[in-house]
Amino acid sequence: MLRQGDGEPVVLLHGVLDSERDWTHVVPLLADQYDVIAPTMLGHHGGPEPDSRPVTVGDLVEDVERQMDELGIDQAHLAGNSLGGWVSLELARRGRALSVCALSPAGAWGEDRPDFPRVVGMLRTAVRDTRRGRRLLPLLAHSGRFRHRALAVAAAHGDRVSRADFIAGADDVLGCTVQEDIFESGSILAPLDPAPCPVTIAWSEKDKVFPVDRYEAKVRQLVPQAEFKVLPDVGHVPMYDDPRLVADTIRAAAAKEG
To answer: Considering the entire predicted model, what is its pTM?
Structure first.
């Protein structure tokens, strides 16, 4: 768990296959104003191990609640990317959020899930390719061009990710033990209307996993009271491309409380 700063709590939640490491360069940018906490979710690399399988999105939500309870936090400003954005919205449904900033949240594929097989296929390919190439990564990752190519699904500017962060991210992918549970669950984000707190939905302009033109209309229906904005020149994991933009977006969302 990453933790830094003082003030109202801000809890940052990563996406599937990732860890608290996603927020390494965002946490210090918020710590001047907030008590910033980035846990690793259940079954992800370095996080708590599940007691039973399969693990559902609901289990992830309950485990983040447990971690908040252990820290003595009743409510927090919540920000999450992809799966973490979905979990943030579910925590808001349970009354645990002062505000929510959901960055390209997962789960908005609709009841018939027409786009779900494509998304799962992309993620399974990422796991397979990472497993095959892990031994060579310490050498290959010296190249910014290679990092850009390898992270093309997640980032618009993968070359901005340092070699050390790139290799750590690969280990996160391989260390996630619940990816197939999540892929196979087929669950969806249910409507959040009315929203119990201020909600900002911030979609990455260059998101290849959840392209904004496929998902904007649906997520606006699911969370109709949310402010919807597009973050320029960033990919699905915008913290890789522009930590400052992400921090500013979260700060603006938290300022809407009340």
So the answer is: 0.96
Q: How many whole angstroms separate alpha carbon 230 and alpha carbon 79?
A: 16
pLDDT band at 187 (very low <50, low <70, confident <90, very high): confident
Contact 15, 81 (CB under 8 A): yes
What ranges make up the beta strands (E) of 71-151?
76-81, 97-103
Q: List, in order, residues 6 or more apart from 114 with CB less than 8 Å away.
A: none
Helix (H, G, I), strand (E, B) or coil at 108: coil
Helix (H) or strand (E) segment spanning residue 245 = helix 243-254
CB 32 within 8 A of CB 7: no
* pLDDT tens digits, 21-48: 999 999 999 999 999 999 999 999 999 9
Q: Who contacts 202 (Cβ-Cβ below 8 Å, separation ≥6)?
A: 101, 102, 103, 104, 229, 230, 231, 238, 249, 253
- CATH match of 2-254 with 3.10.450.50: no
What is the pLDDT, as a whole number, of residue 258?
A: 58
